[in-house]
Design brief:
single chain; 341 residues; alpha/beta; six-stranded parallel β-sheet; six-stranded mixed β-sheet; 14 helices; 12 strands; 15% strand; elongated
Length: 341
């Protein structure tokens, strides 16, 4: 069997110290960009993986996995964390749960903290601000060091790692088609997801469905980058103008706020306005009328993401072939939409 390349081997190849190699692989600002690029490329080419046993001798031994989520108050992420914790616990791993609160800066600080520890792997769902800035460089040192990483739900196509997602475009297409088949033609998009990839995919699915049903796209009905503090005001303006017969919320808060605002204006649901949203949390069941929603199966997604990570860790495999598992969504029809035969 071919001997695995070590930190010493890389240092000898470039005629530098082990410390320089280590800093380069950890993306340290002390090393020039050119030197870092050469060392990282060489390490990848020779499939370098750090000696976790040696690391754990220098640091407190830990059989731990870092988990970064954007929002714990979101029902989907609360469910995902529960699924993750169960799988990690079943396999003897500790979970270090961290919340970015949709902040890129905080997400970067969390990754720096986790890099200083001896985590065995990382599970990530991106912050909204990270998507807006399109800056995921803070995750690359984990991959450069051979630490397995799995992204779930909010993922980046620019990172080469395993991913667990839903087919956002297809789910949005199906939801839009459900509204069209119930008689709706003026369907508005309401979203707090900003520039996240999942937002773009969901809007693409909506666009394609309108096109396939010969309905012209009206960009004035797309509110894809709403600020939370102004969302109710914008929805009230939209509904007061009488321009729409349906609202598609790209996440739960958009759907629930749309429904409550329509209620306050005396608009009859679903007779005058139909509403569908992503995420089948607690609120869609209990608002009145109850809200038709798309279940992303958060608990199951968490289980699958954690299972994929444990598999990578225990097989000591962080090669160049990665998997993207796509979980099927389920539309839960309730009172906010007209039944479709």
């Amino acid at each position: 069997m071919k001997r695995k390349i070590s930190l010493d081997d890389i240092a000898k190849h470039f005629k530098v110290s082990k410390s320089t190699v280590s800093k380069a692989l950890n993306d340290s600002h002390e090393i020039s960009a050119r030197t870092k690029a050469k060392i990282i490329a060489y390490a990848r080419e020779h499939k370098y993986r750090p000696n976790l046993n040696a690391i754990n001798l220098r640091k407190e031994p830990s059989h731990s996995v870092g988990v970064i989520i954007p929002n714990i108050l979101n029902y989907f992420f609360a469910q995902a964390i529960s699924g993750i914790e169960k799988v990690l616990n079943d396999h003897g791993y500790n979970m270090i749960a961290c919340i970015s609160n949709e902040s890129h800066k905080k997400e970067v600080a969390i990754t720096e903290m986790l890099r200083k520890g001896a985590i065995s792997g990382l599970l990530v769902s991106l912050a909204e601000e990270t998507g807006k800035l399109n800056n995921i460089d803070h995750f690359k040192p984990f991959l450069n060091k051979g630490i397995p990483m799995v992204m779930f739900d909010r993922v980046s196509s620019e990172l080469n790692c395993d991913k667990v997602t839903i087919d956002d475009s297809k789910a949005a297409y199906n939801a839009t088609e459900h509204l069209i088949k119930s008689g709706c033609k003026r369907i508005a998009i309401v979203s707090l997801l900003g520039d996240l990839e999942i937002s773009k995919l969901r809007i693409n699915g909506y666009h394609q469905c309108l096109k396939d049903h010969n309905i012209d796209l009206d960009k004035s009905l797309i509110f894809e980058k709403l600020e939370k503090s102004f969302m109710e005001v914008e929805i009230r303006k939209l509904l007061s103008a009488g321009k729409v017969d349906a609202i598609f919320g790209l996440e739960e808060e958009a759907g629930v706020t749309s429904l409550l605002t329509a209620n306050s204006l005396g608009i009859k649901i679903p007779e005058e306005l139909s509403i569908i949203c992503f995420t089948n949390g607690v609120l869609p069941k209990y608002v009145r009328p109850s809200l038709t929603s798309i279940s992303q199966h958060g608990y199951y997604m968490g289980e699958r993401a954690a299972g994929q990570l444990v598999k990578r860790i225990e097989q000591n495999d962080n090669g160049n072939t990665f998997e993207t598992e796509v979980i099927k969504t389920t539309m839960i029809e309730r009172e906010s939409t007209v039944p479709v035969a």
